[in-house]
Design goal:
The chain has 450 residues and is of the alpha+beta class. The protein is 32% helix and 26% strand. The chain folds into 2 domains: 273 residues, Beta-lactamase (3-Layer(aba) Sandwich), CATH 3.40.710.10; 89 residues, Lipocalin. The termini are far apart.
Length: 450
């Protein structure tokens, strides 16, 4: 009897091992097929790493880190990670809170030498969660010119400190890079250390993230990727940006392997307590916590953030219940790393990704389609008109090309031209009251006004 049981156990282990290997090989094949489409259609170049449990299940470099030298992207390539920087800034703030150096709920005026009266009710919590109402300096009309110049932190703050708030602090969510510039300044004031030195001493060095740091234009950095963009479907060098500009909102570089080290540390108390991590990963408004978006992807809890930077587009997407992480770092800014990460997750979960859903052609009934027609206010000076043409929903904004909204379900739509997800929201009486727009980590509620 014991011999029979042992034989059965051996058989079952062998059977499931074969199935797991087959599953992994099948996913690898699907991922390679998907990525080839991204390369052919959007000129993707970069590095991808997928971790499941304690193992790396997929990692691969694509295209060139530097087109002129013919250097390929690989696991050691260093990319500017853009707004993924925000989660490190948020972690530094949480660390300082736990050291008793600051308080999330304290007014930021406590830590600033100078501040406008309009900021007197803004707290650190408001900055962390993009609920301060402070205008985003990267939306300034002259930003594309300014980004070529060198700025001190005080110079950066001066660009937005005298602008009126866009809403009362705490009222709503509006993703603003200005918030995280102020957080970096507060880190320096409270710690007495330059921002990059604080991160190096208290985050990167303890975690042995040896290939992560603050990027400086003049620094010779081994394995640094060059940034690219598209012009009429031709890959060209991305415009120059002085790296003093992004500062604590987007100034870091890293590799997929170092970001995996970071990911693993977030399951432990190596940097902050469990309570500190809970604060970071608790969504406030529009699913945003402290430097992270916390929502779900096809009913799987997802903690994620994108990182766009001129010449680069990145994403880190964590599924804590499954202990699965997808990291996409790319040195071309015209692709959507968040979309790639989301689609790869769908493949791994055995679900359909966006292009597959579109190919299926979800049929929206005429009555439902009619309820979405109207005007929606994104900003007071930006109105989106939804209309029906040739039995399709079309989005129109004065001065911009028309965009088709392709239905993924009755309430969810996809606008491929701008890589946006559109959700129509109804009240208790099934009347459409607003349209929620999501482009990477930027989310906006647009109320129906007509």
């Amino acid at each position: 009897m014991k011999k029979i049981n042992f034989t059965i156990v051996i058989f079952l282990v062998y059977f499931f091992t074969l199935n797991i290997q087959g599953f992994a090989q099948d996913n690898t094949s699907k991922i390679n097929e998907y990525m080839q489409v991204e390369i052919n259609r959007f000129h993707f170049r970069g590095t991808i790493l997928i971790s499941q449990g304690d193992k790396v299940s997929f990692s691969k470099g694509y295209g060139m880190a530097n087109e002129e030298t013919g250097t390929p992207n690989d696991l050691h390539t260093k990319f500017r990670i853009g707004s993924i920087t925000k989660q490190f800034t948020a972690m530094a703030i949480v660390m300082l809170q736990e050291k008793g150096k600051l308080n999330f709920q304290a007014p930021i005026s406590t830590y600033l030498d100078e501040y406008p009266i309009a900021w007197q009710d803004i707290t650190i919590h408001h900055l962390l969660t993009h609920t301060s109402g402070i205008a985003d300096f990267t939306r300034d009309p002259d930003y594309k010119t300014a980004m070529r110049s060198t700025f001190t932190v005080n110079d950066l703050i001066a660009r937005f400190k005298d602008k009126p708030l866009t809403f009362k602090p705490g009222y709503t969510f509006d993703y603003s890079n200005s918030n995280y510039i102020l957080l970096g300044h507060i880190i320096e004031k409270v710690s007495g250390m330059p921002y990059e030195q604080y991160l190096q001493k208290y985050i990167f060095s303890p975690l042995k993230m040896e290939n992560t740091g603050y990027d400086h234009n003049e620094k010779i950095l081994l394995h640094r990727a060059s940034g690219y963009t598209l012009k009429k479907d031709i890959v060209i060098n991305a415009p120059f940006v002085d790296m003093s500009i992004p500062f604590s909102t987007g100034g870091l570089y890293s590799t997929v392997e170092d970001l995996l080290v970071w990911d693993k540390a977030l399951y432990t108390d190596r940097l902050v307590s469990k309570k500190g991590l809970e604060a970071m990963f608790t969504p406030v408004k529009m699913d945003y916590g402290y430097g992270w978006t916390i929502d779900s992807l096809n009913h799987h809890k997802c903690i994620r953030h994108g990182g766009w930077m001129i010449g680069f587009n990145n994403s880190i997407m964590r599924f804590p219940d499954e202990k699965m992480t997808i990291i996409v770092l790319s040195n071309i800014d015209s692709i959507s790393a968040n979309t790639i990460a989301r689609d790869l997750a769908a493949i791994l979960f055995g679900e359909k990704y966006v292009d597959e859903k579109i190919a299926e052609g979800f049929k929206l009934n005429t009555h439902t389609q009619q309820t979405y027609i109207g005007q929606y206010e994104v900003f007071p000076d930006l109105i989106v008109t939804i209309c029906k043409e040739d039995n399709k929903l079309i989005g129109k904004i004065t001065g911009y090309p028309e965009i088709e909204l392709k239905p993924l379900s009755e309430e969810e739509f996809y606008a491929k031209e701008v890589d946006a997800r559109i959700f129509f929201i109804k009240d208790g009486e099934h009347k459409v009251i607003q349209m929620n727009i999501q482009i990477d980590d930027w989310k906006k509620e647009a109320k129906k006004i007509k």
